[in-house]
Automatic annotation (TrEMBL):
Residue ranges occupied by any HTH gntR-type domain in the UniProt entry: 15-83
GO molecular function, one term: DNA binding
Protein name, UniProt field: DNA-binding GntR family transcriptional regulator
PANTHER family: GNTR-FAMILY TRANSCRIPTIONAL REGULATOR, MANNOSYL-D-GLYCERATE TRANSPORT/METABOLISM SYSTEM REPRESSOR MNGR-RELATED
Native source species: Arthrobacter ginsengisoli
SMART domains the UniProt entry points to: HTH_GNTR (SM00345), UTRA (SM00866)
Organism lineage string: Bacteria, Bacillati, Actinomycetota, Actinomycetes, Micrococcales
CDD domains, alphabetized: WHTH_GntR
Keywords: DNA-binding, Transcription, Transcription regulation
InterPro entries linked: Bact_HTH_transcr_reg, Chorismate_lyase_/UTRA_dom_sf, Tscrpt_reg_HTH_GntR, UTRA, WH-like_DNA-bd_sf, WH_DNA-bd_sf
Pfam families per the UniProt record, alphabetical: GntR (PF00392), UTRA (PF07702)
Source species, domain of life: Bacteria
Length: 246
C-alpha cells in the first residue's frame, strides 16, 4: 500500500514524520490514487512498510480522520470518505443542484398523501381552515447511495402532483412547470444525530451526524408555496456560502 501510494519518508526533513504521512495520503486522495471508498492497510502494516513506529502512524491516521478524509468502520477498517456534495446556499432544489453538477440523482417516494392541512402547516403556508396540501417524504440518492431524507408539504392550488411525478422530477421543477416563479425562502440549517429510522434509510448508524434544513419558499406573488424539513448525511453533504460585510 505504501509503495502503491508513493509514500516516502524523509527523516532529514524538519516536517514531522507523522505529518509527512498525512501529506502523502492527502495527495493520494486528492490526486485520485485513493478514490472514495478505498480501504487502507491497517496501521501496524503501514507503519512496518514505512519503517515508522505505530504511535507515529496512529497520530497521522487520527489527523486524517479528524479532517474528514478518512473514516474508521468497525469490521471494515479505514476507508477514504466519499466525496461530499457541496451545495451553494441559494434558492434552488437539491435535484437541480445535483443534476447541474453532472450527477444523476434518483428519488424514491416513501409516502404520499393529499389531505387537509394541520394547524402547523396552515400557519407555515398561510392557508385557510379546511385547505388541503400534498404531503410526502422522499429518499434522494446519488450513485445509488442515500444522501437525503426529505419531507415536504405543498399547497394544492398550483398544480397536480402525484407519486410518479415526484419519482421522476425535482419538486421545484414540477412547481415551475406549474407556473411558480420562486422569489425567496426562509431557511434554517442545523444539525442532529440520526435516530433508528433515519439511520436505516440513509444507510448510516444511529447517533451519526446529520445536517438539517427547514425551508419555506415564496413565489413572486407572495404565496407561501411549500415548506419542508430535510436531513442529509453529514459525511456526504455540506452547504457553501459567501459572507458580505454590510
Amino acid at each position: 500500500m505504501a509503495n502503491h501510494l508513493n509514500l516516502t519518508i524523509d527523516r532529514s526533513s524538519p516536517v514531522p514524520l507523522y505529518h509527512q504521512v498525512v501529506q502523502g495520503i492527502e495527495a493520494a486522495i486528492h490526486g485520485g490514487v485513493l478514490p472514495p471508498g478505498s480501504r487502507l492497510d491497517n496501521e501496524i502494516d503501514l507503519a512496518a512498510q514505512l519503517n515508522l513506529s505505530r504511535p507515529t502512524m496512529r497520530k497521522a491516521m487520527d489527523e486524517l480522520v479528524r479532517s474528514g478524509l478518512l473514516v474508521r468502520k468497525r469490521g471494515v477498517g479505514t476507508q477514504v470518505v466519499s466525496s461530499q456534495v457541496r451545495r451553494p446556499l441559494e434558492l434552488s432544489s437539491l435535484f437541480d443542484d445535483l443534476s447541474n453538477n453532472g450527477s444523476k440523482p434518483t428519488t424514491e417516494v416513501l409516502s404520499f398523501s393529499h389531505d387537509e392541512a394541520d394547524a402547523a402547516t396552515r400557519a407555515a403556508l398561510q392557508l385557510p381552515a379546511g385547505a388541503k396540501v400534498y404531503h410526502f417524504t422522499r429518499l434522494r440518492k446519488v450513485g445509488g447511495k442515500p444522501l437525503a431524507l426529505m419531507e415536504n408539504w405543498v399547497r394544492d392550488d398550483i398544480t397536480t402532483i402525484d407519486e410518479a411525478l415526484l419519482g421522476s422530477q425535482g419538486l421545484y421543477g414540477i412547481l415551475r412547470n406549474g407556473g411558480v416563479n420562486f422569489r425567496l425562502a426562509s431557511q434554517r440549517i442545523g444539525a442532529m444525530i440520526a435516530n433508528d429510522y433515519q439511520a436505516t434509510m440513509l444507510e448510516t448508524t444511529p447517533g451519526s451526524a446529520l445536517v438539517t434544513m427547514e425551508r419555506t419558499a415564496v413565489d413572486d406573488t407572495g404565496r407561501q408555496v411549500e415548506t419542508g424539513h430535510h436531513v442529509y448525511r453529514a459525511d456526504s453533504y455540506s452547504f457553501e456560502m459567501t459572507l458580505v460585510q454590510r
